[in-house]
Design a protein that fits this description.
InterPro entries: FAD-dep_OxRdtase (IPR006076), FAD/NAD-bd_sf (IPR036188)
Cofactor: FAD
Distance between the termini: 34 Å
Family: Belongs to the L2HGDH family.
Number of strands: 20
Pfam families: DAO
Order of helices and strands: EHEEHEEHHEHEEHEEEEHEEEEEHEEHEH
Strand content: 25-35%
Shape: elongated
Radius of gyration: 21 Å
Oligomer: single chain
Number of helices: 10
Protein name: NAD(P)/FAD-dependent oxidoreductase
Mean pLDDT: 95
Helix content: 25-40%
């Protein structure tokens, strides 16, 4: 079988795929990104809240916990150096009942164990001094949380990739991977024709398509290709001027460990525009991006638990994104899967599975983990 030869192929041009490709190219590898869309970063990466997470919620020892706080620090340094707009505005995790307040100290201890540096337990009066519009009995004030210009980050990573000699092939989808001696053959569909790339290293960062590509990889054991689920999250924009300078999260949502999200919360973009979301709506389509206006009543009720002054008619449908999940409704939340050759036995291959939040925050840390799994020297 004839094939075009290169050093490394990254399937998927989202923010994680670009971060990985940048790291491989900067390690001196001829690197090609395969992106099935018309541009990089236009699918899941373009449809999230743009939050730089601190690492509060994740189970101790999980990959999410290990990569979030270091990843946020790496990302902040990178953005400062690359001129990407970001702001560490902080957030309040607000408890509106005594039972929710009683759970905050344990959540703080978890956060500290996960590497969160600046998180304080405060009472309702202190919280209202910071954000006068909220109503709560207690809160956690986490200063390590921020927001980022996601589009600017995508552009910066893509520019770094090009500067290091990497290339991006658009409208090119990796369909299958076949080990061939000490190389991997990647079958690519695009522009009405099929091509084969031969590479020493392949990273499957295909997001929603990653489990399918794993299933279409010869020689992988069945457990290397988990079932995938799609969790749609809608956002509603606030049509007035934001009364908040920080992000506001409800305390109760993730307490069971089975929540697929963190509850409807208030987020800001780098310009200060306020929006609410995401909620969780299970779907069977990864491209289900329509916002149902009928969900507005549920949003309003959830928000008024901690912001009773939300004006009538102040929300408008904004956008929706779909999170790639490795667990379904009512199941325990799943961790990232970063499966290298040590996990599945295929030399030169890394599968990134279930990379949802905090994937954006952790993108540079994930890229460093991939380099380590492929036993490449650090830059």
């Amino acid at each position: 079988m004839s094939a075009f030869h290169t050093d490394a192929v990254v399937a998927g041009g989202g923010v994680v795929g670009l971060a990985v490709a940048r790291a491989l190219a900067q390690a001196g590898l001829e690197t090609i990104v395969l992106e099935r869309g018309d541009g990089v970063g236009r699918e899941t990466s373009a449809r999230n809240s743009g939050v730089m997470h601190a690492g509060v919620y994740y189970p101790p020892g999980s990959l999410k916990a290990q990569l979030c706080a270091p990843g946020r620090a790496m990302l902040a340094r990178y953005c400062a150096a690359a001129g990407v707009d970001f702001r560490l505005c902080g957030k309040l995790i607000v408890a509106v009942t005594g039972a929710e307040a009683a759970a905050l100290p344990a959540l703080r201890q978890r956060a500290l164990g996960n590497g969160v540096r600046d998180i304080r337990l405060i009472d309702g009066r202190e919280a209202q001094a910071l954000e006068p519009e909220i109503a709560c009995v207690a809160a956690l004030h986490c200063a390590d949380t921020g927001v980022i210009d996601v589009h600017g980050l995508i552009q910066a990573l893509a520019a770094d990739l090009r500067a290091a000699g990497g290339e991006t092939a658009l409208r090119a989808e990796a369909r299958a991977i076949i080990p061939d001696g000490d190389r991997l053959l990647v079958q690519v569909a695009g522009a009405g024709e099929e091509t084969t790339l031969s590479a020493r290293y392949v990273v499957n960062a295909a997001g929603h398509g990653a489990p399918l590509l794993a299933r279409n990889t010869a020689g992988l054991p069945p457990q290397a290709a988990p079932r995938q689920w799609f969790a749609k999250g809608s956002y509603f924009a606030f049509t007035g001027r934001s009364p908040f300078t920080r992000l506001i999260y409800p305390a109760g949502a993730p307490a069971s460990g089975r929540a697929a999200g963190l509850g409807v919360h208030a987020t800001l973009d780098t310009g200060g525009q306020l929006r609410f979301g995401p909620d969780v709506e299970w779907t069977d389509r990864p491209d289900d991006h329509a916002v149902d206006p009928a969900r507005q009543a549920m949003f309003e009720a959830a928000i008024r638990r901690w912001w009773p002054g939300l004006p009538e008619g102040a929300l408008a449908p904004a956008w929706a994104g779909v999170r790639p999940k490795l667990h379904g409704p009512g199941e325990p939340a799943a961790d990232f899967r970063i499966d290298g050759p040590q996990a599945h036995g295929v030399r030169g291959l890394v599968n990134l599975l279930g990379i949802e939040s905090p994937g954006l925050t952790s993108c540079l840390a994930i890229a460093a983990r991939v380099r380590a799994l492929l036993e490449l020297d650090a830059p």
